[in-house]
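Methods: holo model generation. Sequences were used as deposited, without trimming of termini or removal of tags, and paired with ligand SMILES retrieved from the corresponding compound records. Each pair was processed once, and we did not select among multiple samples. The sequence and nicotinamide-adenine-dinucleotide SMILES for this entry were:
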Amino acid sequence: MAKDFEGKVAFVTGAASGIGEAVAKQLAARGAKVVVADLKLEAGQKVVDAIVAAGGTAAAVAVDVGQPEQVEQAVKFAVDTYGALHLAVNNAGIGGVAKPTADYTVEEWRKVVQIDLDSVFYSLKSEIPALLKSGGGAVVNMASILGTNGFASAPAYVSSKHGVVGLTKATAIDYARQGIRLNAVGPGFIETPLLNGNTGSSNFDALKALHPMGRLGTSDEVAALTLFLLSDAASFITGSYHLVDGGYAAQ
Ligand SMILES: NC(=O)c1ccc[n+]([C@@H]2O[C@H](COP(=O)([O-])OP(=O)(O)OC[C@H]3O[C@@H](n4cnc5c(N)ncnc54)[C@H](O)[C@@H]3O)[C@@H](O)[C@H]2O)c1
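and the model returned the structure below.
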């Protein structure tokens, strides 16, 4: 495998599971030093152990991305551990309860917005100064196809993911001349623990049918697009929103 991320330090949130785990593992396999940041430290350490066993370099840090001070400390941990920051993937997220807008409590709304949208702002606020110090870098914010499409009984999630797309565009414009590229990725439905937790089932036939390809995506497929956007091959790509959705949004 090409070691095209050699010498780069990457900070990945929600990296103990699913898409974030795949991103962390692919980055490490291609030479990056990876900080696995997650609410679940033990699960994050398992990802680190697997990366190290495969010959890569990684360290785990506990963070609640909904808490700005914790995010600041986690980014500082990355810089202190590996000396710089070049890449960030703001990926941690939750689905929230499934019910229509008027049935959402204020607390349920705020929790999803805090973890799925506010967290990306907190992360960028801490990451950007570190990226500027390194002379620039690249960021991917994990949105969703629900960053542009609606979906039944998911008002807070859909709103948050639309917000992530907007925040990505606004921030990309602010830093385009300072060497920082930011893009958003919009996965279709991907078979991960998040999906299992949200649907309470592992029978995804109805969800599969929503995708013209007739199947769900994999975390590795989302990671492949994410790494492309982080790589120098994407040097003229910033402020945009890229789908990996089996054709979902084409309908
Ligand atoms: N699975 C899908 O179908 C799908 C589709 C589109 C977008 N996404 C997005 O991809 C991202 C990753 O989702 P996934 O499917 O891999 O989920 P997942 O549940 O497998 O992994 C999410 C990780 O985030 C961590 N996390 C949750 N809350 C956190 C917090 N407050 N602070 C730090 N870490 C926290 C969890 O511990 C977990 O390790 C999310 O932003 C999600 O919205 C997922």
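Helices lie at 18-29, 41-53, 68-82, 106-133, 155-175, 193-199, 205-209, 219-230.
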